[in-house]
Each structure stands twice: as structure tokens, then as C-alpha cells.
Amino acid sequence: MRYTLFIVVCRMVLGGHAILSAQDDTSNPIAFSRDEVSAAARLAGLTPPDIQFLVDTTLGPQAYRIERGSPGKIRIIAGDSAGAMYGGLDVAEALRLGTLKDLSPRVHKPSVEYRGIKFNIPLDLRTPTYSDNANAAQQNIPEVWSTEFWHSMLDQMARHRYNVLTLWSLHPFPSMVKVPEYPEVALQDVWRTKVPLDESFSTRGTDAVKKEMLADHEIVKKISIDEKIAFWQGIMRYARNRGIEVYVFTWNVFTWGAEGKHGITQDQDNPVTISYFRASVREMVITYPLLAGIGITAGENMENRTDESANEQWLWKTYGEGVRDALNRQQGRVFRLIHRFHWTSIEPIMKAWKEYPSRFEFSYKYSVAHMYSSPAPPFIEEVLPKLPAGLRTWLTVRNDDIYSFRWGDPEYVRAYMKNLPPRDKMVGYYMGPDGYTWGREFLSTEPESPRELVIQKQWYSFLLWGRLSYDPTIPDDHIRRILAAHFPGISAPLMFDAYATASKIIPQITRFFWQDIDVKWFPEACISKRNGFYTVRHFAAGFSMPGSSTLSIRDWRDLIIAGKPATGFTPPEVAAALKKDATRTFELVAKLRPAIGANKELRLTLGDFEAYGHLGNYYAEKILAAIDLAMFDLGNAPGKKNSAIEHLKAALEHWKRYASVATAQYRPALYGRVGWVDLNALTAKVEDDLRIAREWRPKSLTAAGLFR
Predict the structure, then answer these.
(1) Which of the residues in the chain have pLDDT under 50?
(2) Which residues contact 517 (CB under 8 A, 6 or more apart)?
(3) Under 8 Å CB-to-CB from 657, ≥6 apart: which residues?
(4) Based on the number of CB atoms within 10 Å of its own CB, is 637 exposed (0-12), middle (13-18) or buried (19 or more)?
(5) Residue 651 CB-density burial (10 A; 0-12 exposed, 13-18 middle, 19+ buried)
(6) pLDDT at 212
(7) Is 373 within 8 Å of 510 (Cβ atoms)?
(8) SS3 state of residue 510
(9) What pTM was computed for the model?
(10) Within 10 Å of residue 681's Cβ, how many Cβ atoms?
(11) Alpha-carbon distance 142 to 449, whole Å?
(12) What mean pLDDT is reported for the chain?
């Protein structure tokens, strides 16, 4: 096989295009795609095609087209190395799917320029992230210091066309840099607590490290700060060679790992703390020349949270001046500062940051905490017109809906992409959870060895979001071929439909029962950290998602009382849709089960679908019961109480089936933003809904005191 690789473009011209050339560095983007092509050809029993890579910068970043010449010869013409890599990955996929002859010469360009992963990174007991008081975070502390882990993660990201990795930490500096002015701060080794965690932690990170946790710890990796720096420099270099930019995000003001050293405290007015942060930011930028930027938050622990101007001045004195100090030493470097719209607003931001010396952008929590709700969340509509001319925002796309189960609905993803803000307002997105760690999975009752990466286990979901945000026009038939190749012997159309149908259930219920942030709603368990288990009374008094055209029970009841027509998706229609999707899911699973054989992944995937189906039926019956109780509450429909009780009896049986299927595959777990989740233990809460219904008195329906 012959390849023409590149890092530096030569002057040589062939057919109007410069030939791309470089030394044969096995880690560069084209070498990666070359290896993918070779592996795909080998598995297919084919001779690898002869590929020539050429550059045409007029195509633009990440763009490419594929030209098939004489038999066995292919030219990939790309705008840059990332585009060339994507073209090579297309060829590799065509070899796997048997569609090489169908490769089109059309130009491929990214629909969304930046497509990223949000990764809350548990670096160390002493430098936690926002959700470290959770099983998954603690178990992943050793993994995030593993080269093999990151190589696997970044390879998978590139295959799915992600080009941004954001690492989120309360205070990463002691684990990642040396600060000459504060030498005692840099941390040696990697620690993890041996103290069992519980649900007592704050949701704001203010008690993320407790004295007893430090007193009883284990060293999970012996490593010096110099070795840590070399490690992260290597990971960022590997990311660059997969076309991926790396960013670090922080919350403020936290000084975990540095508290008490050199006079450093969490006091915003402490001049030592300000100086320390400024120097730490400077060293982060200088130490990591491949770091693309820093994201910042005006919270969660800023003492002056009610004074946005004071907070912004603090952020400028620390992060702004720190970046400027570094760029004064690295003239010409582009370094992004991404300022989150969180506990702050545009006017004080722009006033404080007017002298930022490089690229300045915003970040907005696009679906709040629930990307699996509506594909057209309305919340950003009030922000976009206020963006200053020439400035754009990133979208934080939070998945705090689904931690356990596999998901995959191409129609939903395409609709989500279609409704994103225009390019002149949006830079790109990064998606991920706050309450779970997308490292290796530690939930499975039948784990692989080593345990799978979450991005591997939930490969189909990551593929859909990555590939369809690069190119939302990829047809369903192509996706079916991918499923057929991944699960040999199955009916790909049935598998495609089963994935999509089961995956409609969580978004439907979250649109109906809306609680915006993760500490208020976890649909896998019908619970929240703030409100506990959501009872049938919560559902009767609850709210629907703004802008989703879904009516809550109270709003729908008010229309009935007023004799007005319902303009939207009514509660009975929501219940009927959930039942329909559940029934169809069970039908498809039954048709697919004979193909399982010894395919463990297929068996577990169908188990996830079955769990979705039982959960959908549970919520459908609970909604119907809540409707009946809301009508009984008016005082003129006495039979509705008995009807509600019958629905809740049915809901209890569906919950038991759901818990049985789900816990056969997943262990109970402590989640940082939800608390302890044990579906079998929650059965008592589900059963208590029957008592609530039996004791219901008319004229008692109100949301007061139910939601916090």
C-alpha cells in the first residue's frame, strides 16, 4: 500500500492540488486513518486500496472529498490533516460495510465546527471535580492517569468525528502544573480516599474533600509532578494527532490541594489567593503549548455571588491576567477563554474582559441538564440576541438523563442538530454528564476485563451524536449497515427500529415532567437529590418542559375546567405514547432475541431496551393515576380515586419488572448529583403511591412545598 502523508505541505502540484507529505510518524492523523484502513481491509479479507492524500486548502478545515481512480486506487483531497483523517476513516468504514464502490466524490464539510465531550475529570482526592463523591468518579481516578485509557478514548472520539475534549475540575492546578512562586502546592502521586462515600455531600463542591477522607487514603499511582506534566503533555500531543483540541474548565473559587499553603485560602479578597491563581493560570498555559483554551465559571463557590461585577473583576485578575502573562511570553499564540453564562451576565463580563488578548467566547447550558428531553430546547432564545457583535457561544449539552442504558435515535439527533443556533452565533458544543464519569464503566454486573470505556459500551449513541453533528445528512440506510456490521446475523432494520423506539421513552417523560437541573430529576429512578422520590402527587402537581408543546396535568385540567380546547400534547396522549413505544419495543426485542446466540453485547443491549419498555409503562400508568387524582381533587368525580389506585397497582408491577431487568445488568450506585440509586430498594417508595392515592382528599392539589 502506498501513502503520501503530510505535516508540512510541499510545493509539488498534481492535478491542481499540492501533494501532502511528511515523515512517517505513526501517531499523526493520516497514519491513524491508514492503520484503520489496513485493519478494515484485513478483516474483510481484501487488499488495501492504494491511497494518495492531497491538500486543497480552499476546501476549509476538516473538509475532504474522495475520488476513486483505477481499480484499487483512491485519492483523498482534504483541507487539512483532520479532513484527510476523516476521509481515510470513511474509506475504512466502506471496507467494513462493503460499500467501497459507493463512495461519492462530493465534498464533506462539518455542519457543526466543534464537536466535543464534556469530561468531569477525577484527578485526585486532593483536586476533585464537581461530582467526585460518586462511585464512578472514585473508580476512575487511576484510569485518568493511564496512557492506554486516553489513547483508547481519543481513538474512539476521532472515529466518531469529535474534535474537542474538555476536562472539568474544581481546581486542577496542583495536579497539573508547578508554580515557581508557590512550590509547596504541586502534588506528588495520585491519591484516592478509602472512606466509604455517602449522600451527605453538598451539590456545590464546597465539601468535596473532608478531613477524614484525607486521613484514610491510598496511593493509586506513584508519580512525580514532573512525570504528571509529561503525561498530560503526551495526552495533548496524542489528541492533536487525532484532530482533537483539549480544554480545561474550572469552577470557582476552590483551592483544594493548595488550601493553607503559602497563605492560600478560598477568600476572594485574599491577595495571596489572587496572586496564586494568576500564577497557576500562567503556568497552565505555558506548560501546555497544545492546550487550546480555558473555560471558567463565576461560581459555584464565589463569596460575592450576588455581585457579578466583583466576581468578574476577580476572574479577570486571576484568569485574564494569568493568560495575558503567558501570552506575553508566547507571542502569536491563539488561546481561547470560554466564559460560561452561569451566575453572571453579559454586561459585567464584557466590562471586565474588554482587554482579553486572544479569542474570547461564551458557553451556555443549552438543554440545562437534560439533552434527552426536547430536540428544540428554547432556553437560549433570550440570550442569542444579546450576544455582542462578533462574539459566539459554545453549548454545554448536559446528559444527566441516562447513565446506565444504551441509547440511539437518529431522528432525535438530526432534529437536535437542525435546531442549533446558526454558525454566526455558535462555536460548537461539548456534551456530557455532571453526575456520572464517562471513563470506564463500573456499573455492569457482567464486566469485561478490562472494563469497557463508556464510549465503547455506548458506542452507538456516541457515533450518532458525533457523526450526525459533522454530517446530519447521513442516511438511515447507512446507519443500518453500521448496525449490521457491528451485530452480524441480526436484522439491521429491526435493530435500528428497536434502538430508536426504546430511546424515545426518556425524552418523552422528561418533556412531560420537567425539572431543569440534574439535582432535581433523574428519570432512570424517578428521583432527585433535592426532592427525593417523585410521588404520584408530584406528577399531578408537576410542570412540563417550557417550549415543548407538552401540557402538564394542572394546565390541562385548567383548560378542561374553562371549557377551552387543549393546544398541545395532553397528559393522556403522553401516557398513550409511552405505552405505544413500550409495546413496540417489546415486540422488536422478541423478534431480535433469537439472534442473540453467544453475543453478550447484543443480549445486554436488548436488556436495556426491555428496561426502557418497562420504565415507559411504569410512567404511563403513573401519569394516568395522577390524571385521575387531579380530576378527583375537583370534588365531583369520586370514581376517579379507585381508577387511580388501579393504575398505581399496574405501575407497581411495571416497576418491579423494570427493577428486575435493570438490576440484572447494573449494580446499585452512588451518583454525585443524584445520591444512592437502588431500584429494588425504591420499590417501597413506588408502593407508597398507593397509600397517597387512598388518603387523597379533594381540593388538596398544589405544587407548594413539593418542589425545591
Answers:
(1) 1-15, 21-25
(2) 368, 369, 400
(3) 614
(4) middle
(5) buried
(6) 97
(7) yes
(8) helix
(9) 0.96
(10) 12
(11) 15
(12) 95
